[in-house]
Write a structure and sequence with these properties.
By secondary structure, the protein is an all-alpha fold.
Length: about 500
C-alpha cells in the first residue's frame, strides 16, 4: 500500500507540473500577442479558443475517461478496450472536422467572427481532431503509469507551440493565422510522437457491446462537462456577441493576466485530491482537512491582495527596447483582473470543498454545483454586460465561482462533516477587507504609481493577521524560529 501511495504522489507531481507549464505558456505568449495583434484579433482568438473548449467535449464525448474507468475490468494485455475507444474517436473526429472545414465560412459568420476568419476555424477543426485522438492515447499512458512519457510528450507539445508562435507570429508576421497554424502544428507533432506507443496497443478490433458500455458511462457526464467549460469560457463569447471583437480582445488579455492565481489553484488541485483521498478513515482527517482550508484561504487572500495592488506595475514592466510588458492599448481593461483573480480564489475554495462529497461518495453534488455556476454565469453575463461592459463579465465569473463554492458547502456539509475553522477564516476575511478598504481610501488606481505605499499595505495583511490573534500556539512556535519576536508581538 505504501508503495502505491508513493507512486501516486510522484505521478501527481509530474502531471501537475505539466499542467502548470501549459498555463505558464499562455502567460508567456500574452506580451507577444499584445504587441503584435490588435484587440480585434485578440477577441477573435479568445472566442475561437472558447468554442474549441466546448467542441473538445463533443469530439471526445468522455471516452478518455471511460477508457480509464473500464481498464480495471479488463484482463492484463487486452487491446480491445483501447482499440474500441481509439477507432471510435478517430472516426467521429474525421466526420466532425470534415464538416466544420466544409462549412467553415457560414459557421464563422454564425459565431459573429465573419467569413474573413473562416480559415482559422478550419485549422481549429483539425487541431481538435488531433487533440481528441491524442487524449485517448494519453489516457492509456496514464493507466499504464507512464507518467514520465506523459509529461515528456506534454512538454514537447508546449515547447513546439511556443516555438511555432515565436517563428510564425513574431518573425514571419503571420498574425492571427500564425497563432492557429502554430497550435495545429504542435497538435500534429504531438500526435505523431504518440503513434509509437499507440500502435503497440492498437488492434484491428472494435467491440460494439463494449463501446455501448463505455458510452453508458461517459454520456451522463456530458452535461457536467459542458457546464464546467461554460463557467470557464462562456463570458468570452457573450462579450463578443454584445460588445464586439475589440472589447472581447481587451477582456481576453486582462482575463489572462489573472493567471498567477489560476496557476496557484491548479498546483494546489494537483496535490489536494490525492491528499484527502489518502486520509479517508483516519481519526484526525476532518481536522486536517479543515486546517488545509484555513491555510489555503490565507495564502490565497495574500496572493489576491498582491495581484490587485501590483497588476499595474506588472503590465508596465519594461521589455528589451523599452516597451512595456503589455501593450498600453489593453490597459483600459485592467480593472477586471482583481475580479477574475477573486473568482479563481473562490474556485480554489470550491476545490477545497470537494473533499466532503468525494469522501462520502456523493459526487453528483459536484455536477449540481457546476451546472448552477454555469447557469449563473450565463445569466449574469447577459444581465450585467449591457450595464457595466467587461466589468460585468468579470463580475459574472466571480458570481459563478462564488455560487459553486457556497452551494457545494451547503449541499455537502452533512455528508462528511468537516470542522472548518470559521473564527480564523473570519479573521482572514476581515484583514483582507481592511487592506482593500485602505487601498480604496488611498485611491489606488490602475496606474503604476506609489509602489512603496502598495508594498507597505500588502505587507500589512500578514501583520494584521498576527495582531488579530490568528496564529495558534504551535504555529507561533514554528514561526518563532524565523521571527524570534513573534511570540511577544502576538500576545
Amino acid at each position: 500500500m505504501l508503495g502505491d501511495i508513493k507512486r501516486l504522489g510522484r505521478e501527481t507531481v509530474i502531471y501537475g507540473l505539466s499542467t502548470v507549464l501549459a498555463r505558464l505558456l499562455n502567460f508567456l505568449l500574452i506580451p507577444l500577442y499584445t504587441h503584435l495583434l490588435v484587440p480585434e484579433e485578440m477577441g477573435v482568438m479568445g472566442a475561437l479558443f472558447a468554442y474549441m473548449a466546448f467542441a473538445n467535449v463533443l469530439f471526445l464525448y468522455g471516452l478518455d475517461f471511460a477508457l480509464m474507468r473500464k481498464s480495471a475490468d479488463r484482463p492484463a494485455g487486452d487491446r480491445t478496450l483501447f482499440s474500441t475507444a481509439c477507432w471510435s474517436v478517430v472516426s467521429s473526429s474525421l466526420v466532425f472536422s470534415s464538416a466544420i472545414h466544409a462549412f467553415s465560412a457560414p459557421l464563422s459568420s454564425m459565431m459573429d467572427l465573419g467569413t474573413r476568419y473562416a480559415p482559422l476555424l478550419a485549422m481549429a477543426a483539425w487541431t481538435l481532431a488531433c487533440d481528441a485522438v491524442s487524449s485517448v492515447i494519453f489516457a492509456q499512458l496514464r493507466m499504464e503509469h507512464r507518467a514520465s512519457t506523459y509529461a515528456a510528450l506534454k512538454t514537447a507539445n508546449i515547447a513546439t507551440n511556443l516555438a511555432l508562435n515565436v517563428v510564425l507570429v513574431a518573425w514571419l508576421d503571420w498574425g492571427l493565422f500564425g497563432v492557429f497554424a502554430g497550435t495545429l502544428g504542435a497538435s500534429v507533432l504531438t500526435l505523431l510522437l504518440l503513434l509509437p506507443p499507440a500502435l503497440r496497443r492498437l488492434a484491428p478490433a472494435f467491440e460494439p457491446a463494449l463501446w455501448r458500455a463505455m458510452l453508458g458511462f461517459s454520456l451522463p457526464l456530458f452535461p457536467g462537462a459542458l457546464a464546467a467549460i461554460a463557467v470557464q469560457v462562456v463570458d468570452r463569447l457573450i462579450v463578443l456577441k454584445l460588445m464586439g471583437k475589440t472589447s472581447a480582445g481587451i477582456y481576453q488579455v486582462n482575463y489572462k493576466l489573472a493567471i498567477l492565481m489560476m496557476m496557484a489553484v491548479n498546483m494546489f488541485d494537483a496535490a489536494w485530491r490525492p491528499f484527502f483521498l489518502q486520509r479517508f478513515g483516519q481519526p484526525k482527517a476532518p481536522e486536517t482537512l479543515a486546517r488545509v482550508m484555513t491555510y489555503f484561504a490565507t495564502l490565497g487572500c495574500f496572493l489576491f491582495l498582491a495581484m490587485s495592488l501590483f497588476i499595474p506595475h506588472l503590465v508596465a514592466l519594461p521589455l528589451a527596447g523599452g516597451k512595456p510588458l503589455i501593450d498600453p492599448s489593453y490597459w483600459e481593461g485592467l480593472a477586471v483582473v482583481p475580479l477574475v483573480a477573486l473568482g479563481y480564489l473562490f474556485n480554489g475554495l470550491y476545490i477545497n470543498l470537494l473533499a466532503a462529497p468525494a469522501l462520502s461518495e456523493r459526487t453528483a453534488l459536484l455536477s449540481y454545483a457546476t451546472i448552477l455556476g454555469a447557469t449563473i454565469n450565463v445569466g449574469a453575463n447577459f444581465l450585467w454586460i449591457p450595464r457595466w461592459g467587461i466589468m460585468g463579465a468579470a463580475a459574472a465569473t466571480l458570481a459563478a465561482y462564488l455560487s459553486m463554492a457556497l452551494s457545494l458547502y451547503f449541499m455537502s456539509r452533512r455528508t462528511y462533516p468537516i470542522p472548518y475553522e470559521w473564527g480564523r477564516l473570519f479573521r482572514v476575511a476581515a484583514c483582507l477587507a481592511a487592506c482593500l478598504s485602505a487601498a480604496w481610501a488611498m485611491e489606488f488606481g490602475m496606474s503604476p504609481d506609489r509602489a512603496a505605499a502598495r508594498l507597505i499595505l500588502c505587507l500589512g495583511f500578514p501583520i494584521a493577521l498576527v495582531f488579530s490573534g490568528f496564529l495558534l500556539p504551535e504555529e507561533k512556535q514554528a514561526l518563532s524560529r524565523i521571527w524570534p519576536g513573534l511570540t511577544a508581538i502576538s500576545r
